[in-house]
């Protein structure tokens, strides 16, 4: 459970010492620290991501960095005290694992906060939430045994492998949903598919189902995949659904892409257990291209909460559904010009004997 989506949306309202700005289904709101703790106590999630005073969209100045540290420190102390503190009765203490945020700053800039995490707050935290890959190598030894959740927004599986090699235990993967919305099916295995050892041409990480080449292709998305989509449907069917803009297309793609990522992480864990992770990563890098394919089709229409706030002079995210009926206007004008229409008033018509003008 966290206060923000991933990737987070830049909010025009500023954070305050007692709240953070968030984007909700009813617009921008301030989430009070006390409200967040109340939600944790009611919902009882497995993992809680602590509130952090993050600056989104630009690099904070020195004075702002000081505020970030002070507020995040206060948020963490406040939440852990209410959830797990010594004054909380044993039977009412939260069972949720609290992941304390580590700000995307140098350790020297948040040294007091980090010292408290190592000492006074250490009994109350069960993990760390980090917001950039560079923070993974800066975790001190007293906190080294805690699981690390990384919000680095990796763009490819190669980025995931790099973050795992640096020490990440949990990651968020926004590109999986982005690919599904774009009609792109992931197609990779770790460390490599069962192919000859000599690789002349790297394999693609995914393929675009908007391509006309899939119009009559009745093969599964992946012959080795055991997901619901691959066992029950084929490429031509999903291509048809995308063309018809049926929501089922994106649902089936998301099922498949989730399964690919589940298998990918299971293989990573097995590789680490065998002690071959570094060699397997190098094999994966040689086997697959470095980037995912560029989207060519249009995803599902974005609405409301799905739309990040836009700034000035930015293009429309959704194509205009309706436009000016210029061609219809021209045709209407042509049809009107073919009718006999008088070019004079009532008096002129009377002179020509068309009718009598009534005078009251």
Q: Can you tell me about this structure?
A:
The protein has 360 residues and is of the alpha/beta class. It folds into two domains: 1-152, no CATH class; 175-300, no CATH class. The chain has eleven helices and nine strands. It has helices at 33-43, 62-84, 111-118, 157-166, 174-181, 228-232, 235-243, 247-274, 277-287, 326-337, 346-351; strands at 19-24, 27-32, 47-49, 97-102, 127-130, 148-150, 170-171, 184-186, 206-208. Helix 4 (157-166) links the parallel strand 6 and strand 7 (170-171). The N and C termini lie far apart (82 Å). The mean pLDDT is 87. This is tRNA-guanine transglycosylase family protein. InterPro entries: Queuine_tRNA-ribosyltrfase, TGT-like_sf, tRNA_ribo_trans-like. Residues 291-321, 333-360 are annotated as: Disordered.
Strand percent estimate: 5-15%
Helix content: 25-40%
Mean pLDDT across all amino acids: 87
**Oligomerization:** single chain
Biggest sheet, spatial arrangement of strands: 3-4-5-6-7
Question: Given the structure, what is the number of helices?
Answer: 11
Unreliable stretches (pLDDT < 50, length at least 5) are none
Class by SSE composition: alpha/beta
**Radius of gyration, in angstroms, nearest whole number:** 30 Å
Number of domains: 2
Distance between the termini: 82 Å
Order of helices and strands: EEHEHEHEEHEHEEHHHHHH
- Outline type: flat
Number of strands: 9
Largest sheet: 5 strands, parallel
């Amino acid at each position: 459970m966290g206060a923000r989506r991933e990737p987070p949306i830049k909010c025009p309202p500023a954070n305050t010492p007692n709240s953070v700005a968030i984007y909700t289904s009813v617009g921008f709101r301030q989430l009070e620290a006390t409200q967040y703790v109340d939600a944790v106590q009611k919902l009882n999630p497995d993992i809680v991501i602590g509130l952090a005073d993050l600056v989104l969209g630009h690099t904070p100045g020195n004075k702002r960095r000081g505020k970030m540290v002070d507020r995040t420190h206060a948020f963490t102390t406040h939440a852990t005290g209410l959830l797990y503190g010594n004054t909380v009765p044993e039977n009412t203490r939260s069972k949720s694992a609290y992941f304390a945020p580590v700000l995307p700053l140098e350790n020297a800039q948040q040294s007091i906060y980090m010292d408290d995490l190592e000492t006074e707050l250490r009994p109350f935290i069960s993990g760390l939430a980090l917001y950039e890959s560079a923070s993974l190598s800066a975790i001190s030894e007293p906190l080294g045994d805690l699981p690390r959740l990384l919000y680095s927004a990796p763009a490819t599986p190669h980025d995931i492998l790099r973050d795992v090699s640096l020490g990440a235990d949990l990651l968020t993967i926004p590109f999986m949903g982005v690919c599904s919305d774009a009609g792109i099916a992931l197609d990779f295995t770790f460390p490599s598919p069962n192919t000859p050892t000599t690789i002349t041409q790297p394999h693609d990480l995914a393929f675009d189902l908007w391509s006309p080449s899939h119009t009559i292709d009745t093969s599964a998305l992946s012959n080795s995949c055991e997901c619901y989509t691959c066992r029950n449907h084929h490429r031509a069917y999903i291509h048809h659904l995308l063309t018809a803009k049926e929501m089922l297309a994106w649902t089936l793609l998301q099922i498949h892409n989730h399964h690919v990522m589940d298998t990918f992480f299971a293989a990573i864990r097995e590789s680490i257990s065998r002690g071959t992770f570094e060699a397997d990563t190098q094999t994966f890098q040689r086997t697959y291209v470095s980037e995912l394919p560029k989207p060519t089709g249009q995803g599902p229409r974005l609405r409301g909460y799905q739309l990040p706030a836009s700034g000035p002079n930015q293009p429309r995210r959704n194509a205009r559904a309706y436009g000016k009926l210029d061609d219809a206007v021209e045709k209407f004008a042509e049809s009107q010009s073919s009718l006999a229409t008088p070019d004079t008033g009532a008096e002129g018509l009377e002179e020509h004997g068309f009718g009598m003008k009534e005078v009251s």
